[in-house]
Amino acid sequence: MLYRRFGRTELQMPVFSCGGMRYQFKWQDVSWSDIPSDNQKNIEATIHRAIELGINHIETARGYGSSEMQLGKILPKFPRKQLIVQTKVSPVADAKEFRKTFEKSLKYLQLDYVDLFSLHGINNAELLDYGIRPGGCLEVAKQLQAEGKVRFIGFSTHGATDLIMQAINTNQFDYVNLHWYYINQWNWPAILAANRLDMGVFIISPSDKGGKLYNPPQKLVNLCAPLSPMVFNDLFCLSHSQVHTLSLGAAKPQDFDEHLKTLALLDESSEILPPILARLEEEAIASLGEDWVKTWHINLPTWEHTPGGINIPMILLLWNLANAYDLVDYAKTRYNLMGNASHWFPGNKADKLHEVDLRQCLILSPHAQKIPRILAKAHEMLGGEEVKRLSQQ
């Protein structure tokens, strides 16, 4: 395993982390007696495999249902200093309730402290305010830190880049969990801002949210050759020294195997990546047109400033990925989350396009005339049954 300094925490972080949201039995709390033995044995085998590989960062959350309880039967068996354990609690209006929720996490984990504690899902201004206002959840986190129950404090986010920058620039956090990978690089300014303040940078779900790369379309496989799309994406992310660790979200012990191929390639990334990156860009231009590829994102309105709350930037991104790389299944899943995932994936689909007038909000876009037509085509291509977040299934 390779390790990187995790910002001001000074922790030596493995470049791959063992995310804990895909191997648990349920997304809701259950009694220990309800957990099947084969499910628990699988988690135990997954954690042992991670540690064996040097992946000693185990990351979970109160919102991951039975994950903490199940980990609590495993993690205390390892030497405590061998592990970097992280959990996350969503900020709420009542900071006392936030503390109670954390205490529940610690009890489930059967640990005296966690190394990393995140305010989970700072996705909008209200949740940021719950965190950083006087008497808010961040103050509680710092009290827990003073009590020795928390070593370092960070936040996780699915929010807009501007909001992430706002949270980072408070300089009150030691690290950030955020989305950034080849198909969606919007948060790069936030990563640079975190680096300037010597914060750790953890990338959320690069293989799943980064394109369902465990089941890639053949077109993407061909474009990424000789690497698999998963290894290409890992190498792309880790070739940037500003990134410290990628969450793998393993569901079983074998899920680490493909990622491990990345490690031997890192020193050669400057030779390996450019031909693949050039091929991907050429295919996008061939499929979508050079002018569109280079300028589609300019001066688009946010969903909050769009009639009907239509999330134009995200819909256009999904349209691009589906057409350029055949990431249709991925695009459909993400598209049909809109309007059904609250602040975790905000904004609406283009299903009510006929009810709104987008001319004013698109007035500064170089593609103002064609975007409504593309939104209609995107809905026709991607629309389907509503998709629920994993925690709601």
Automatic annotation (TrEMBL):
Signal peptide: none
MF (Gene Ontology): oxidoreductase activity
Organism superkingdom: Bacteria
Gene3D superfamilies recorded: NADP-dependent oxidoreductase domain (3.20.20.100)
Ranges of residues in domain NADP-dependent oxidoreductase: 38-169
CDD domains in the record: AKR_Fe-S_oxidoreductase
InterPro entries named among the record's database cross-references: AKR, AKR2_Oxidoreductase, NAD(P)_OxRdtase_dom_sf, NADP_OxRdtase_dom
Identification of the protein by name: Aldo/keto reductase
Organism: Nostoc piscinale CENA21
